[in-house]
Design goal:
The complex is a heterodimer. By secondary structure, chain A is an alpha+beta fold. Chain A is 46% helix and 23% strand. In chain A, helix 21 packs across helix 30, helix 22 crosses helix 28 and helix 29 packs parallel to helix 31. By secondary structure, chain B is of the alpha/beta class. In chain B, strands 6-7-8-3-9-10 form a 6-stranded mixed sheet. Chain B has a 4-stranded antiparallel sheet with strand order 2-1-4-5, with helices on one face. In chain B, strand 7, helix 6 and strand 8 form a beta-alpha-beta unit. The chains are: A alpha+beta, B alpha/beta.
Chain lengths: 1108, 232
Amino acid sequence: MRIVFPRAAAARTLLVAAAFAATVTTVLLTAFVLYAQLLPIAGVRSAMAEASVAERTLMVTASAPATPEQVAARDAAIREVLSRGLAGVPLLVSAGGYASGQELPAGLAPDDGSAVVAFMTDLPDHARLVDGAWPEPAAADDDPVQAALPVEVAEQLGVSVGDQVPITDNRTEPQPAPVEVVGLWEPVDPAEPYWRLISAPVELGGWGPFVVPAEDYGARYLQLGSLEWVADAEPDQLANAGMSEVAADYRALADELEERKENDPALDRYVRLSSGLEELAGRLGVATVVNRSGMVLPAALLVVIGGYGLVLVARLLAAHRRGENALLRARGASRRQLVWFTIGEAAMVVTPAALLGGPLGTRLVIYADRWAGDRSLNVEADLAPSGWLGPPLGWAVAVVTAIGCALALAVPAAGRGRTWVAEQQERSRPSRASTLQRAGVDLALVALAVLAWTQLRQYGSAVTVSDTEYGLGIDPLLVAAPVVGVLAATAVALRLLPLATRLGVRLTGQRDGFASLLGMWQADRRPHAGPVLLMLLAVATAVLAPAIATTWQQSQRDQAAQSVGADLRVGIAEPTRASGSELAAALPAATGLMPVSRGSVSLPEGARAPLLALDSEAAPEVARFRPDAATAPLTEVFGRLREGRPEFAGVPVPAGSTRLTGRLEYRAPETIEYEAEYEGTGGQIFTEVGEVPGPRTNRLTIYVMTHAGEIHPIRVGIDTTEADELGFQLSGGSARLDRSGGVDIDVPLPPDAAEVVGVGAGVVLGTGFFWGADTLDSDPIPVSWQWELAAVDAAGADTPLELPPDWQVTRSEFVGGPAPATEWDGSTLGMTIPTVLPIQGNLLVAPGLEVLSPVPVVATPDVLAAVGAEVGSTLTFAATTANELPEMQVVGTVDTLPGTERGSGVVADLRWLSIHQLLRHERTPEVTEWWVATDEPASAVAELGWAGPVLDRRAEAARLLSDPLGSGMLIALWAAAATAAVLAAFGLVVDSRATAVRRQRELAVLHTLGTSPPALVRALVVEHAMLAGLGVVAGLLVGVGVAAAMGPSLVLTPAGAVPVPEPLLALSPELLALPTAGLLAVSVVLGAAVARRARREVVAGALRIGED
Amino acid sequence: MSELVRVERVSRDYGSGDTVVHALRDVSFTAGEGQVVAIRGRSGAGKTTLLNVIGGLDKPTSGRVWVAGHEVTAASERTLLQLRRRTIGFVFQSFGLLPILSAAENVGVPLRLAKVPAAEREQRVAMLLELVGLGDHAQQRPYELSGGQQQRVAIARALANEPKLLIADEPTGQLDSETGRAIMHLLRAVVTDRGVTALVATHDPALLDLADRVLTLRDGRLSESEPALAGR
């Protein structure tokens, strides 16, 4: 120490700088690690708080045993199992039981439903007594059981305190047993887990619960009763305990219960444990791993940059000490002694860092969290118990970081065993390749980076905790891949650096400017890897961090667009009232509306994929496809869905028409005479002459196409088989249509009706089966339908709708006897049934099409792969519903399909599919939702009576972006970028200072030789600009390259799955330019400062040029 | 023999008041063309200060200096730069070579500053390196050369622009006696061959016998003594 202190005092400026750097690095890293530690916990806490009660509580159900004693034993056994808690967090257990089959007196309940008689432990702790008192056990067996009822149920049943409700146990007691209502209550907090008790029978329609004392339940309601236990833990405590531990303990608890079911006589095999907790814990566990891994990345980059900055300080110190060390060695000091001097000094320098890192890092985290405002994770509460000193973790990180800083300071000075001459030679002709390069480590790094990238690409499905955790709470691959990527790209850049500087020398050497050439010489021949590397790493980090952040943000927006499909997706609750024009009126700022019919197609192995039939003209504008969704422009891809779409001219419905009126006539013989001959067993011929009822019509439909392309079937005839008649919708009631007759109809038109595109009729001839008849004779049976239709507007004006005679019977499907002949003359559909044999069938009259070609579809690649199809293929999907699907031809692909869960599916043109389905199957796709392109919020359609749930893309994006885990990571990434810039700036300051010191004599010599001070300044600026420029350019390339290669792979869903659509690299030019320009500016300013100082010192230096 | 350097009543003080140091006190002398003038004196006697003042690197407190007809002490920075580029060559005790440049590039620096065309520059560099006996070491960097070789490169660089005055400050200070003597012989030969005037600061008595004149500085005052082999 006698030497260490004086030595340190002599280099106090540098050592203060080193201490400052070590402290800044340590504080920042400590804050980072603390934040990384707290962020997932806070995120999980938030997720747990938002999880449904069913997800986060444990529910045990069991049948009620025969006696109260057995109930007590079962309760004790269950409570004992639950008492083990989860990950050390105690479970709060509440129990209850209910009896089923309890009939209320007729007429009491609006639906004549049954009562739920139950007991619930601790009810007074969770419910507020509104009237009366809590029930007491019945004093005598004959006394009515006292019960307390939810006030809301009591109002619905019309009972009040003091009423006796005779409840009959219809399985055990033939006579009703009165239950006296003594109290009315309401839950204090209906969201409490407690209210899971007895919720199932009530949700199934039971009235109650009539809560009775447990004693009375045990005495009177055990038979066919059920028991329930709800176990709940503080969500915050569970979150703090760690999701992996919670999931493991849940499994252990479930296993123990299973084991006791086998061995404990108090339990039986009907005891069942259920909870969403394991799944929730698993999901959040993975999210924690992913998040923590994401946080380690910027921290690792900061370690590299901060450490390198310190190494630069150490080198400067070593250069400063070169002469002094040479003297000490000449005077007999051993290398080991010099090393100890250095270590002592380094320990002195990092002591403030070790002492201040914990407390200051803690304060920094708290201030950063406060600064986050609405996105605050309230980490202050987590850190509060540790006081101002900060948590032990902070101290551990600070001490370890400080030791690292000490090593970074000591190793460069201590690690070199070269001679003075060797050092001078190295200064003179520095090797272009570093030791690591000569050893090929950089190439190995590149290979490793490629391997890591390949592995990262394999994260095609959800990351699982078992895959990733390895006891570290992080996914090593998620952490290592980008760091290795940055290092490898940096190594490649350093290999290329000499080529760039050599080119610079060659270019400037061809001109006469000595200053520029001198600057280039310096840049080319000095060992500049240090500052360039620092600049490179800083720029790379400053680019990588925002790139990942913006990629994450963009991915959340893409996921929101993907899941919603458009700006707004308006569900349809009442299909008959849904109106595009009404929707457009509600959303005046909408730039596009698109009807969508959502169905599905079957894929092999039981899989299914959505089938969206939509307005292919509006789709490119309305559906939120990502620009890379298709290789061709979307207008072209969706245009193919309409190519060759048949002209389908219906009968136009005047605008403003609201109702369809008219008359339907049906003609068929009342009876049909027949003669059947049978051959008897002895060869005798029996002739049966008789008559059967004539054919009746069982279905009458008018098909109206809307402007959106949806075909609405207006079923004016309702099959009423029992009455052997057809009932009709009329404006003021109903009418019946027998075999021959007519009926006036008056039915509402669907909103936005555009044209009548077909009329359909069904016929049934159910005559018996004539089994064994050798011959059957009857006259042909004529049947006819006649339509007279008119459209009526709101004012009552009607417009006749003439059905064209050139329509055709486009569909004629019969089962049973031989197919009848049909004809259409413009208003009458005639048919002749050849014989009296039973027959049933449907007829459709519609515009005829010569060819009904396959419906063009666009599909996602995974769907095509599943069915082995490609563009150009024609295929028929198996339908998942009763609807048969038409033949389809694949005309294009899109990578992902918005508005679908996994982004995969099939898209068809709604109008074409509707026409096809009408003509082929008379089953038209129903519009299930409207997609809207608009800036207006979901609330704008709240007034629409027919609208169902409305999904809002922006709201969904905001929800995803506000995910505390994700947004916390963004803050960390931004902090990393800023910190990297600060640390790099510090390193550059140090390097600049070193340059200024080192160059002083050289500049003086050049000045003596006749170089003007401005030329010297110019040379320094050229050198600095060249190196800074190279560092910035290389850093940009490295940052963008690594971000492009690995950034999208680092963005995972909270459950650790690859998002849909797959993330794309999102680069914001401003965000790239800002740190880059900032660092470049810092470097240039520092270069100018060095040059200015050099100019000033050149004159002073010249005074003693004769001396070294 | 015409006069190349005139130093007239030059004084140079450092500091002020009680701490003032009189580095040079009323120094006057002249040096003719083609002369080797040795300036001797103990360390701190003012040798370097005198050379700096003559080379235009320092301003005297009083007095005037002329070099090749230019009054150095009254010249502008621009004139001084031109003087250092074209009229004066410097040789330093520690050689003053730029470590990142090869021997040839070091010699070429003054030529680049004087904007000598590339072809002529390369020719003159080669010639100068041959002159100092380092034709085979053109591409070597300073620390790949011995001390003597480095000083030869420094002399070649000093002669690159064919200066009229060569200022050498302890040119053999970092060399062993034999190498030092060889360097002094080289200087002597260059002066003789090219008619250059050399002002050489040294405190090595063994080297003084190669000088035409020996000036002695003692506490900033100058006196002249005859060299052992003066007049050769």
